[in-house]
Design a protein that fits this description.
By secondary structure, the protein is an alpha+beta fold. It is built from 10 helices and 17 strands. The protein is 23% helix and 29% strand. Strand 5, helix 4 and strand 6 form a beta-alpha-beta unit.
Length: 294
Amino acid sequence: MRQAIFGDMIIDRLIEVEGPGYAPNVFFPEATSEGFEGEMDWLLPHFWDIAAKTYLRAIQSYVVRTPHHTILVDACVGADKERPSSPAWHKMESTWMDQLVSSGVHPEEVDFVLCTHLHADHVGWNTRLENGRWVPTFPNAKYVFHKDEFRYWEKVGKVNGGQGSQDECFVDSVLPVMAAQQAVLVDGDFEIDDLLTLDPTPGHSPGHVCVNLNAREQQVVMSGDILHHPVQVAYPEWNSRFCVNPDKSRESRRAFVEKYADTDTLLLPAHFASPTMGRIVSNGLRCKYQLADS
Ligand SMILES: [Zn+2]
């Protein structure tokens, strides 16, 4: 799915990176090769790379256009960011901005930027480099951050002398938005136009939220990093190595899978590879991910 239209809502997917991920047991420390192998009948061909012997993943954003607003959900890695601990992301260049403009949206037309959480691969395009300074990429947008998430990274940054948040991503991609007075710190009850609501799902990070779209014709959830890969629909107990609170992360993921299993709700996850959009369905004792296009 590159674009989905539900009534008067248009959703575009902007893909910054796509391809094989880390070794499976590196990214998912509790994962077993038997577990992956048991799900290959539905993981292939879109979510597993046989040649690379690892899973496929993407880093992507969603642009939602309602009759009244243009909303960017998650801001990927971004351009020119100093990320020495993640060489592939260090001073990265991509076609992300070209994709945004090609979808018919210019940066000044974005009304809201909503980050499901504040990890480096979700805040990058919040800011851009201008004359050596980081400035908001979207000059007319309100940037929506969950209070718990913002306060956690603010504290981590202070404790570690500003070094705490994934190669300074809080400093270069969040604080400049605060300085420009474009940030809005919200609780879980924030909503836009009755159409877009938040679902607090802490664990991967303290203030992680999923974003619900309540279109008349279709329920959609942009699920951020509550699931990194479809295999976690079958194994919700498998955390990623980046889950800040492992127990809470499992609890939120299990509840999420149970809530949406065998419903009509479509998922738009932050890291599922193309074609990405699908539903959670029962599959014997476990669940599986069923692509919307199949
Ligand atoms: Zn992520």
